[in-house]
Design a protein that fits this description.
2 copies of one chain form a homodimer. With 166 residues, chain A is mostly helical. Helix content of chain A is 59%, strand content 6%.
Chain lengths: 166, 166
DNA sequence: GCTTATTGTTGCTTAGAACAACAGATTGCG
DNA sequence: CGCAATCTGTTGTTCTAAGCAACAATAAGC
């Protein structure tokens, strides 16, 4: 159990029993009209991506939402929670609790906004900036996994296609 | 509240306050290295798709997972729960509860498998088949919404690209 | 035959999403 | 100016999904 032949990453090989079952199965299973629904495939891909992301960054205990928060704060120091929530499509209430966790871990801090006493200005702490280096490297590693799965052309085409609409 | 000027579909116009805030905001907010992560955009798209799907099929109270279950049973009458769960990437335990709901609503039924006394053979009921017609029509309507959002070329390209790998 | 694996199921835990309400602060406007 | 409407961050609550462990009944492998 300590060493394995294949790097059973528990994601990439999660379908080993599936292949077994497929082997044993006479007729292949049809998706029916699901074939015409982009949402089904987007969902499957998204689940794979999240699993791989979480696994790749497990050592740093950074989940996708946390990563996106840290990265956007880094790129826009001093922005408010409302703007951050809005940019990421996260609900304000949810962002509060996300930030609570990150702040408690010393990765970012809330300062009083100099121009609006209601709002906070968000910054990475020095520790946060330092931590984000390796974290971004691992995120890039995850992206490489994804590129391997999709093929570079397809990956790049998807990224370009989805980046546009905003 | 009964009538509106704009068809405020509560998804498509959910970013009305966002546009307001953007208007008021001096500098635009950068995504930083998030720009290079396909997962971020896939996630945003997937959320939009689910919202639109749920909204479009609200009258029938069919959610994406339920829809996929019904469609695959229709396309593969008599298949087992394990095979269905496996095909859709749903956990067996979760499928049990999904089927409980659908069966209680009279949309499908579990029969004893003739070849394996452990497993069930799944079928749509007559009511289920009858209901699935309009439901698939609404799902197609949702797909049209999605196509409108992405543009036909992009929609079709994405569908083709993601359908492949299985 | 006897061990191992599979199937459907239940229970439990955790994470996310969504909504309502609130106090403090700001903005808009008459 | 002064008051109503709006915005900000926050707390609380509810609902759904995801994931894991365990189990009895059954089947498959050797």
């Amino acid at each position: 159990m300590t060493e394995r032949q294949l790097p059973d990453d528990s994601i990439g090989n999660a379908d080993a029993p599936r292949r077994e079952r497929l082997r044993r199965r006479r007729e292949v299973i049809a998706l029916g009209s699901l074939e015409n629904h982009l949402g089904y495939f987007v969902r499957r891909l998204q689940v794979w991506i999240f699993h791989d992301f979480v696994r790749t960054l497990a050592a740093h205990d950074i989940r996708p939402a946390q990563f996106s928060v840290l990265v956007v704060i880094e790129a826009n120091p001093g922005l408010s929670q409302a703007d951050l929530a809005d940019t990421l499509g996260i609900e304000r209430a949810r962002l509060v609790r996300l930030l609570d966790g990150l702040e408690k871990r010393g990765l970012m801090r809330r300062e009083a906004s100099p121009v609006d006493r209601r709002s906070h200005a968000l910054f990475l702490t020095e520790a946060g900036e330092k931590a984000l280096g390796p974290v971004k490297a691992l995120a890039a590693e995850h992206e490489a996994n994804l590129t391997e799965r999709l093929g570079r052309e397809k990956h790049d085409a998807l990224l370009e296609a989805l980046r546009e609409p905003g």
